[in-house]
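User: Structure tokens for this complex, please. No commentary.
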Amino acid sequence: MKLLRRLILRPLRRDLARTLLTVLAVALGVAVVVAIDLAGDAATGSFRSSMETLSGKTDLEILANGGIDEKWIGVLDSLPVDAAFAPMMEAQGSLAGVGGVTIYGVDLVAASHGQGSGGPAGAGISRALASRLHLTPPASLAVTLPGGSRQIAIGRVVDAGPAEFLVLDIADAQQFLGRYGKLDRIEVTVAPHEDFARVEKAVHAALPSGYLVEKPGVRNEENQRMVRAFRWNLRVLGYISLVVGAFLIYNTISVSVVRRRAEIGTLRAVGASRGTVFGLFLTEALLLGAIGSLMGVALGRLLASGIVGLIAQTVNALYTSSRPSPVELTAAEAWTGFFTGVLVAFISALKPAREAMQVAPTEAMSRGAHEHRALLRWRHSLLWAALFALAAGAMSLAPAWHGYPVCGYLAALLAIAAAAFASPAVVLAVNRATRGLTRRSAESLLAGRSLTASLSRTSVVVAALATAIAMMASVGIMVSSFRETVALWLDVQLRADLYVRTAMPSGAGAYPPMDARVPVLLAAIPGVAAVDDFRATEFHYRGERATLGAGNLDIVRRYGRLRFLGGENRDAILRSLPGRDRAVVSEPFALRYRIHVGDRLTVPIGSRTVVLTVAGIYYDYSSSQGYVIVDRSTILKYLPGLVPTNAAVYLNPGADAEQVRREIQLRTAGYGIAIARNSDLRRTSIEIFDRTFAITWALEAVAILVAMLGAANSLLALVLDRRRELGLLRFLGASARQVRGMILTEAVFLGLLAAILGVALGLALSLLLIYVVNRQSFGWTIQFHLPVGLLAGAVLLVWVVTVLAGIYPARVAARMNPIEVIQEE
Amino acid sequence: MPVSRLELRGVCKTYRNSGQPAEVLHDITLAPSPGAVTALVGRSGCGKTTLLHLAGAMDFPTAGEVRIDGRATGALSDSELTALRRTRIGFVFQFFQLLPTLTALENVELPLLLARAPKSAETARERLAWVGLADKAASLPYQLSGGQMQRVAIARALVHSPDILIADEPTGNLDTASGDQVLALLRDAAVKLGATVLMATHSAEAAAIAALRVHLRDGRIQSIS
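Assistant:
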């Protein structure tokens, strides 16, 4: 303990600024990991319908795309089982001043056991919504529903925690929503003494094959499964900051060892064992890791509240509707964050601690000799770099593991290791190449030499900075390639002049219906050449959710430009669909389920199970869950009552789009629809895309911050280590400004070296992200696009950040008292 | 080479040690002659090094004045002091203080680079030849012997032709033969180059080359011989 205090704690306290920088770097790394987990939980934790709180315990749910015919309630009620079957409706409406609100339809009469009055007078409002609206029943509320605005008489307040919704009697809900005779689901409650399996079997047997009978919570699990790839990728991005932090721990402990070689030698000479020395330096790392991790967990909790909104908007845009729930830090998550940080610190310190252990009792080597050895080892390091690069290449060819791009990320990690090992060679090569230039001034000569003289340390900090640049560059290249691909795809996909849909809040997986009369009205407007009314509904395929869509494929063929994989004959494919059980599927769907052209898919449509033959696979970037598209004639054959969800309007050549838009507005007033021009839709789509990736930029900002701490830490270490040299320079006629300039020049060099290595690594990582990770996680084919401006900006940013990081060490260097430092031994 | 007048008039230096004042130098008045070696002699801790730092304008007296060419160093601004060190003063240290990452030539050239002087490499090469190490120009310090390192340090101290050369125990870390070589160079710097050489030493051999020997004891001048 005394040894620990004297050899480790005292120096840590003496170099307090450096100690704090290291601790802060670990804290930030851990904070990001914790924040992403917590915010991910909060953003996806609210998939459970608020109705579940209202209806209490339900044992089974019956669902069907296109809705369930209400006649099945009678059939189920007549089953010889002791179970209750409750009909349910669920839709999105909107309230002035509130926005989107969920409207439930339940059998209020049955629910109140004959005590309630039912009907509009008995409509309920959740307490949270009532207090937000300052509404006390009885009251009347104007609600916008698909098909127009309605006045709903609110009769009572329902206690349901923070959930905001309206609850209507099922008959009123059907009437208001224009879905006569249809139910969204049936909830089954099995009596306590009844055999659950017997009820499940009886229900299955009684219902048509297309209906889905599942346990409540399955939907929540499905949602969680759906977003797991997204969350997994986000988590991995979060760990990058921790990797940068690991470099810094490694660096700090290495500096500790190098600076105390003489002390270690003396310690060994007076009887300390190798194990003691090893333990001392590991303890130093664990101490830094533990303090940093503790701070990181607390900081992560704070950060989580900031990023939960960013994650939620991505989940809403890409997967399914969710409302962020409060961020909660559980003991398990806190411990996981803490141990991750400590483990990273432990692993990072192993190598330097081993080096410390190997110091001979009589050895009191100078930095020069140690660094000289590092100089001699650079070829060895380069060989390792080549081996790691080869391993990364091999790993990138491996397929996904249970849907996760594990090998892709391992390849990325190996690529980072390759860059780290290549770092000494890059430092030496750049130094050699710039030797002529650096000799022109004392500052650059000394800065360049100092960096190569501290090769092992410089290499680590260059690797840390390069990792941060690479992360920024690779994600930048990936996102911009993706954006470019999506923009091109939108050009191809969005060929109609106007798009019409219900003016309801919609997100991925939510398809508010449109009044069936709207497409007919649209077609009759002068200037309109064709109207493609599209119907979308969710369906289950191999236990996962996907979207079944139906459009007028003859119109798509004539006006659209749907692109198929492998240059398949678009015209022939689209001609083959109308009137037949044939479908085209989106690329993510095909990749996810390994589907090829000619395969047969079993898809539940309404009450039937239909076998569809795959006629083609088309490029799509709107959903990673995937689409199965059939002709409208096919879906209407099985679901005659399925109403359109949106419509694409193609105009005659020369028709005035603005005039047609105004005419549509006029003729469809009261149907609650929204009209978007082609350009509006493109802009909105790109905006959604940009929002989706906002979180990745936030993560990068943290990685850059950690790298900046690393640069400051390393430069400070160099300054403290070379204080005698810096003092000497003042004796030799250097001004304080020149000493400051020298340290800043070192920062400029570090930035340059990191930029060279970082851009190279970033390019490699971007290829992995685009062609391996993205494809394996989401099933999208992204065309590579090099955003030169963005890359130059990223490099410049890190460079500026590195130079800024040099300001404090430079000040420390300039303020040193030359007499004091030159006399130090 | 311009002739500089270095004068110390009633110089005192007091440090604060744990809040208590400790006088290191007391009432030192001295005017080393140009073109000659002046030796400061005395035991360790007698104030030799402090006196050198004051004479080299690296530190300032708490009382009295250090004057270079009639101007008190304490009255000079930071940039004037830097200019003074760049043009008028050279330092030689006991432990050589060469930068390990620079070659012998680069070490010698460094003061000229810091002063942004023209033709720095040529001048440095000449000075390195003057100390007899032209063939070691490309060597790194760790490839040189102690004596060679100190000769490089002398070349560096003289590269900008200073008129004051401050040497702190220049032979303290050398064997006799190397020490003799170094002392010869210091004498040459005074005699041939006309510099005012102020050297701290506790070696009798080193003191022997001096024209003037100032004996210090407990921060005071005990005698001058």
